[in-house]
Design goal:
By secondary structure, the protein is an alpha/beta fold. 44% of the residues lie in helices and 21% in strands.
Length: 209
């Protein structure tokens, strides 16, 4: 399988890269910094690609270099915890670039082999529609709507677009907002489930984890 992992230097992305590499004939891993990405690429014999997810041109170049894919995991993400009136435009934009616009650009420019599957990480809406999480909650809601439309538009290409709803996961995403809850899942457990979904996708397009 020819697989691309977006956000491979994050907790879920890195854990998934390690597992997915065992099933990939060619593996591309994406990150924002080559310094953070290169050691993992050397270890996994993967191809590192650096791109600003908020840049349409950067994402287009990345997708062109990767070529037709059999599998994709969009594991990039960002969060800010600030009341609406106090959220700077730059912080709001950073969250939307990682959670929504990067995915939008990927769907615009990715090329797929027949039977390809792409996984995107979603949320349980009730968990995140709380004060202080306006940027995060709205970007994830927009992603879910985008995928619903893209499924209809890209159906003729034989592509499966899966949204995986995640509970709390013990990653660095919690650093700016506090500590993860005690029952938070480990990234390795999430990665194992994502691999199962990539290899054997269920009938449903929205999957609770």
């Amino acid at each position: 399988m020819r697989i691309l992992i977006i956000g491979a230097t994050g907790g879920i992305g890195e854990a998934s890269a390690r597992l997915f590499s065992e099933h990939a004939t060619e593996l591309w891993i994406h990150g924002r910094s080559i310094e953070a990405l290169q050691p993992l690429a050397w270890e996994l014999r993967a191809r590192p690609v650096v791109a600003d997810l908020g840049s349409k041109e950067a994402v287009r170049a990345m997708m062109e270099s990767a070529g037709p894919l059999d599998g994709l995991l969009y594991a990039a993400g960002a969060v800010v915890r600030q009341p609406l009136r106090q959220t700077e435009d730059s912080a709001w934009r950073a969250v939307w670039d990682a959670n929504f616009d990067g995915a939008r650009h990927v769907l615009q420019y990715a090329r797929w082999n027949p039977g390809a599957r792409a996984l995107f990480l979603g949320v349980y809406p009730d968990y995140v529609r709380v004060p202080g999480f306006g940027a995060y909650a709205t970007s994830k809601a927009a992603l879910e709507a985008l995928l619903e439309i893209a499924r209809r538009e890209l159906r003729a290409e034989g592509l499966r677009l899966l949204l995986v709803r995640l509970p709390a996961v013990r990653t660095r995403l919690w650093t700016p907002i506090g500590s993860p809850p005690r029952n938070a899942l480990e990234p390795s457990a999430v990665a194992q489930r994502l691999l199962e979904l990539l290899l054997n996708p269920p009938a449903d397009d929205v999957i609770p984890l």
